[in-house]
Task: inverse folding
DNA sequence: CGCCGAGTTGAACTGAATCAAGAAACGTGG
DNA sequence: CCACGTTTCTTGATTCAGTTCAACTCGGCG
């Protein structure tokens, strides 16, 4: 498999989003360095499985995660993909101490930063612009989820697919097609047909 | 229409969620009283319509709001109901200054508190427990949206309906059935049939 | 009284799921 | 580097959940 060479360190990320200079961030991170740690995982490894309790947020430094559930009929439903620079947090489990019902799996060999439950709180107390960052992240996450709900309520399989490739072309290229289908809430066979139809349309109009 | 007599003031809400005493909250609110104001609206009034830019979060003190979009075929899709003690925020519009694409409509005569865009930020700077409240609200909102996505991806119309009445029996009783259908992402006729089937099942098992 | 919005019911239709089979791509071990 | 099994993708035939369209009922309300 060809490796993808994206790597956005947590420091890069913080610098970019908080507009603080590198040394401020390095200092802040050093002062709470027991609140996070870096690990590497291999393709196929699980960071979290149903029944376990979640103690960390995951920041993806390199690689790709998927966060999914399995329903009563054994079908997988992907809630999120997380490439470099994204977070995965199992909020139900982390904030309420319940065992999770989701899988968090590495789709590629990945470098992940584990952030303690109180990482954000503690970091926040050291600098104002981090509070704002955190809020912005949550706000954006909400906007993202809301958009997805609107789409699930109103768009056809084809529309959802077209939108997905437009917004996440890189993810499209990095995961098997049936996972995209699972994310979009359609059967893999249906996605295959959707793609065929789109290809035909495109040919005709050319 | 019979009136519903729930009323949860913003102060009640803050006291309950931040565990601060009443006088602290009253003082804090007094110090930023230009950052929020109370209004009353009538059933059918719109607090926000597509094309307008959103400048406030809405806190529902009394009454009921719905937040919905209209798709290209003219169909409505309800993103959220908001009864007493709930918030409605159009984040796309408020944080990015874009005109909104959603309707925010009062389904009953309502008392609404308009919270300025920076209400939360300013209030946060006066007390730590408010930062936490804000974060918890956002976290819960995310959990809620995520659950809804999982359900849209995996559950049948019947399962979604059963879950809805279990969790929001009060909303079920306060809005027309076709709005519940719209929230669940099914046609009103389908919801009617689902209910009929459920009634039959219940009779048989009795 | 007559109108109107909400809900129900039936019949026909349809987008997508399911089932089944085969083709292509992939990775792993020899 | 090839051979083999596994996974992914495609295609066709069939089924099904839910939509659409249309007609009818019911209960309020001016």
Result:
């Amino acid at each position: 498999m060809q490796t993808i060479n994206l790597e956005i360190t947590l420091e890069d990320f913080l610098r970019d989003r908080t507009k603080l200079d590198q040394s401020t961030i390095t200092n802040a991170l050093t002062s709470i360095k027991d609140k996070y740690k870096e690990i590497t995982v291999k393709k196929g490894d699980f960071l979290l499985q149903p029944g376990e309790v979640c103690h960390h947020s995951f920041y993806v430094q390199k690689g790709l995660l998927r966060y999914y559930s399995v329903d009563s009929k054994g079908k997988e439903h992907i809630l999120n993909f997380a490439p470099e620079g994204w977070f995965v947090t199992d909020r139900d489990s982390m904030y309420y101490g319940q065992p999770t019902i989701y899988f968090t799996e590495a789709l590629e060999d990945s470098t992940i930063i584990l952030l303690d439950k109180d990482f954000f709180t503690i970091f926040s107390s050291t600098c104002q612009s981090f509070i704002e960052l955190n809020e912005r992240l949550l706000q954006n996450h909400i906007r993202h989820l809301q958009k997805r709900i609107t789409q699930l309520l109103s768009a056809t399989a084809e529309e959802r697919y077209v939108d997905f490739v437009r917004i996440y072309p890189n993810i499209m290229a990095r995961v098997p097609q049936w996972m995209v289908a699972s994310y979009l809430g359609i059967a893999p066979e249906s996605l295959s047909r959707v793609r065929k139809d789109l290809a035909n349309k495109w040919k005709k109009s050319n």
User: Anything to note?
Assistant: Residues 176-178, 188-189, 191-193, 196 of chain A lie near DNA strand D (CB under 10 Å from a C1'). The longest helix of chain A spans residues 128-154. Chain A is about 50% helix and 20% strand.
